[in-house]
Amino acid sequence: GQQVMQIPQYQHVQEGEDFTTYCNSSTTLSNIQWYKQRPGGHPVFLIQLVKSGEVKKQKRLTFQFGEAKKNSSLHITATQTTDVGTYFCAEDTGTASKLTFGTGTRLQVTL
Amino acid sequence: NAGVTQTPKFQVLKTGQSMTLQCAQDMNHNSMYWYRQDPGMGLRLIYYSASEGTTDKGEVPNGYNVSRLNKREFSLRLESAAPSQTSVYFCASSVQRGVYEQYFGPGTRLTVT
Questions:
Q1: Are A79 and A19 in contact (CB under 8 A)?
Q2: Residue A1 confidence (pLDDT) above 50
């Protein structure tokens, strides 16, 4: 099955640096969700984006939905070690709240 | 509220053995899901249940069966385990309208030798 592509697959940053992960789809999305999974843990919902061009902020995290609703990004300002984990985007398939998850971006933050 | 619970947390099977992974949620959600997670592959949907009494195949259903026992419980069965089924299995649940975020259980780490 087709998965939503995320880039990069992995990023290693120094604490305090910024980080961005991108999610790209070949089709127009009705909405997109973002999840975070800590090492050894389970995915935890962060946010849902619905409108074209929508931008939402959660403290140091900024989420954006593309104007054409075919891509999305998550930007973290001034990373901290608590940001370590894998970030997944997930697109709504339009059926029974079913989601198709992206391949994920693993973030490593060192002091 | 416990949220989504899964049992067991870890399991080792020999090829050909069978087992059932249990999942329960106490949030009165209609929809429930089973995923597998392999390194570099993200989360892939095995089966889902949009509501009590219904189940449907996801992206990777071969080798698995499911049962939606009631609104709370959704089990995943491996009839004849294969090494390719070595993975981490997550159960999730969600509402069906509004912001239907999925709530995940802690996962079951399964190894098939």
A1: yes
A2: no
